[in-house]
């Protein structure tokens, strides 16, 4: 029987919207089906839309001058995706690739601006979403810059635990297959260094593998390595 204290639930980043505000957002969406491998937008495209992920998964990436891909975010059902400064005619500074066939609601910036101007409750909820968006970005950069690659890896494993974790006895299984290449792209490291760091964490009993899935066996050890600040799960996510 599962320990009730270990129940992990994913909440999309739109949880900050009240039911009324969220229904207003749904009313202006245009539904689209996006196939696996397609892009919602590319780095350099004009940012004139925001996307709500009704069903599916999307990764947001940044490409360096050397051609290396850095994974910034992994979005899933219930998340809203796009630039958090929608009223300045800016361009996307990253690309969004669809990882599986997805159903998406497309929100035009003009419609979003009307909602904000006409409904003060919606405007407040949208500000909460923007604040959450920025906090997620800030905590990720903190993890990457302050505690080296081992700290960044442990922080990423904790975020995967909070986003995709499923209790399995005393442990938690990350129920999405994450390769060493994916992990290296998430923390800006080489695949070889990720292999070494994961091997070290396995020797210490912090993680294990089961059928190709990462198993978190000692969350407290990971939290100690990355000096975890115990952010809420809606912030500490992949």
Describe this structure in words.
With 238 residues, this protein is α+β, with helices and mostly antiparallel strands. It is built from 7 helices and 12 strands. The protein has helices spanning 19-27, 109-118, 120-146, 148-164, 180-187, 191-203, 219-225, and strands at residues 30-34, 39-41, 49-55, 57-63, 69-76, 80-81, 95-98, 102-108, 165-168, 171-174, 207-210, 213-216. Strand 11 (207-210) and strand 12 (213-216) form a beta hairpin. Keywords: Activator, DNA-binding, Transcription, Transcription regulation. This is Crp/Fnr family transcriptional regulator. Residues 147-220 form the HTH crp-type domain. Residues 24-116 form the Cyclic nucleotide-binding domain.
